[in-house]
Write a structure and sequence with these properties.
This protein has 331 residues and is mostly beta strands. The protein has two domains: 120 residues, Neuraminidase, CATH 2.120.10.10; 177 residues, Neuraminidase (6 Propeller). It is built from two helices and 25 strands. Strands 13, 14, 15, 16 and 17 form a five-stranded antiparallel β-sheet that branches. It starts with a strand and ends in a 9-residue tail after the last helix. The relative contact order is 0.10.
């Protein structure tokens, strides 16, 4: 069956958890499988029949159990009067060690909600974000789950569209969130932090004339924040937050580079992305150093092209570092 849009996470025992969209009879469904030296069981469908489900995001809790969100369509849903007439909503399920919980709707309101991201903190609390139409604009929405999912909230509502949010959790439980802010014809990457239950004012991370898209966020154990994104000039950039946001740094310089994904660690941060040149595509990888006095000292600019096997190993390593899902697009 055709399959796409995978997400991975690794638990403390080294077990790899994978979810993806598989198109059964042309309709997307979410499937799950685990690897620990070998595939532990056959692939398992975790979204309900017969409705569409796609674009899963995955988090693994401290007990090693997977949690998954996706956007999907409820059976017999009626298209609402939204901009696109969409009927997508965000659903959640989690595994308790025995069974998967029945899928739960977590995006009340107009059913035009897409591209969720999911992360877990050290206490076991889950944090989810997505973007959702409010009747006028697409807004970033955020919800958290302890024992149950709390009512979602809009993050810094504006009179402009906000797309493709991503989030990560810092060592003290602070939430860092980045998204695309669309103001007319421009697209800027913005970010905020949630501290003591309040969102900081949004900060523009990208600059220049290029349209910036597809942010990916990760936080190192030290608390250093990394945000990477691509631009319509085909290049990848990064900004780092320690006590303040450092200036943006371009990581690439040739070909077309899209859909970056970052995972932070005590050693710095690792970035992978799609590189296209002369009609061919490959996965590229870059290690960002943990510190230094200049960009040349801090950022190793040697980007390595990865073959299929190497790419899988690199992705497994990134999952072990971050256990989080990256990449944002409809699909």
């Amino acid at each position: 069956m055709p399959s796409r849009l995978p997400a991975i996470g690794v638990d403390s025992t080294g077990r790899l958890h994978v979810v993806w969209t598989r198109y059964d009879d042309g309709v997307g469904k979410i499937y799950y499988r685990a690897w620990q030296g070998s595939w532990a069981a056959p692939q398992e469908r975790i979204s309900p029949l017969p409705a569409y489900a796609g674009f899963p995001a995955l988090a693994v809790d401290a007990a090693g159990q997977p949690h998954v969100v996706w956007y999907g369509i409820r059976e017999a849903a009626v298209p609402p009067p939204t901009r696109h007439g969409a009927i997508y909503e965000i659903f959640y399920t989690g595994f308790d060690g025995l069974v998967w919980a029945p899928p739960q709707l977590i995006s009340p309101g107009l059913p035009d909600s897409v591209n969720p991201s999911l992360a877990g903190d050290r206490t076991g609390r889950l944090h989810a974000t997505w973007y959702q139409f409010d009747g006028h604009w697409y807004q970033v929405r955020y919800a958290q789950r302890g024992a149950v999912w709390e009512e979602p909230e809009t993050v810094l509502a504006t009179r402009f569209d906000a797309f493709n949010p991503d989030l990560a959790i810092g060592p003290r439980g602070q939430v860092v969130l980045a998204w695309e802010h669309h103001d007319g014809s421009s697209s800027v990457i913005q970010a905020t932090r949630r501290i003591s239950g309040r969102w900081d004012d949004a900060v523009d991370l990208s600059d220049g004339p290029s349209q910036a898209r597809h942010p990916s966020v990760s936080v190192a154990p030290s608390g250093i924040v990394y945000v990477v994104w691509d631009s319509d000039d085909g290049q990848i950039s990064v900004r780092e937050f320690t006590s303040q946001w450092e200036p943006p740094i371009r990581l690439t310089g040739d070909g077309g580079n899209t859909y970056p994904s970052v995972a932070a660690s005590p050693r710095g941060a690792d970035v992978v992305w799609t590189h296209t040149a002369q009609g061919r595509s490959s996965v590229r990888y870059l290690r960002l150093g943990p510190g230094g006095t200049s960009p040349a000292a801090r950022f190793s600019r040697r980007a390595a092209a990865l073959g299929v096997a190497a790419a899988l190993l690199a992705m497994m390593g990134l999952a072990l570092l971050a256990s989080r899902r990256r990449r944002r697009r409809r699909g």
